[in-house]
Write the structure tokens for this entry.
Amino acid sequence: MVRRITVRPLSLLAVLCSVAFAQPFAWGSLSSAWAKPSGTLRLYTSQPDADAQKTVAAFREVYPEVSVEIFRSGTEEVISRFLLEAEKGSPQADVLLVADAPTFELLKARNLLESYCSPEAKAIAATYYDPDCHYFGTKILATVIVYNTAKAQPIDSWAALAQVPEGQLVMPSPTYSGAAAYNLGVITRTPGLGWEWYEALKKNKAVLVQGNGAVARNVASGEQSYGMVVDFLAIRSRNEGSPVEVVYPKEGVPLITEPVGIVKGTPNLEAAQAFVDFLLSQKGQEVAAGMGYMPLRQDVTPPKGFPALSELKILSVPATELAESREADKARFAKLFGE
């Protein structure tokens, strides 16, 4: 015998209202009160491959009904692909997780991002996310000097890095790496460094590679003695036993936060919001810290080897200014280095 259960419209409305108004309205979507995200989530990211896989695996432990497809490359290539898709009216990403805030400012200006005020953002300092909730920083990454302790002498400044032996400095190209593009914008606007610093690197035959991972590997292997790299990779390499040491230059360090944002018009908004919430949550930040990243939340213990954030001298330029000049800066760099 089959039993049929009829849900009367008034009863269903009462249930929904009781969920919605049982407690005061908070940041974030009301749908999170009852939605169970499912379906496919398409993630475009510049995270290292292994880290992206670990991030997704941890997310799916919480949301097993969501399958995640990953496209991974350098920030500049990821965004170029995304913009081409958007121009054709069919962006293939639901969520973007790439290097820096200026990139997201460009996307925000083109109305390509959803505004979603994640409730988890309350645990993060407001300086690390967009006040209009179009993107949120997920971690702290400072660009530093790394050197091979078996081959090189320690130095303490960006100025000294421009004077190391010819061909012994390796750095990521800003035409591929979002972090490097951010560094370019900041350093060329820093008194005492500027474009003259990059011209000195060119004269000294600095070696360009695509991303920060290649920089860390080259210095660890001794192929080059010095590198310009995001700190977590250098610290991770040191913690794993490589003969490298990390220097936070005395002039200060550029700092990025690898923001996350939701693509405007995504067909799976619930899953996209859940992914943002997860990255900003205590559990998500613990996953990041476990991979060697400096977390943004104060209730998550940083991995060993990092200085306190309060100890860092930070070099910065407004993200909107960097966004406006980014393409011109990259073009000038490419001409200078013959890319």
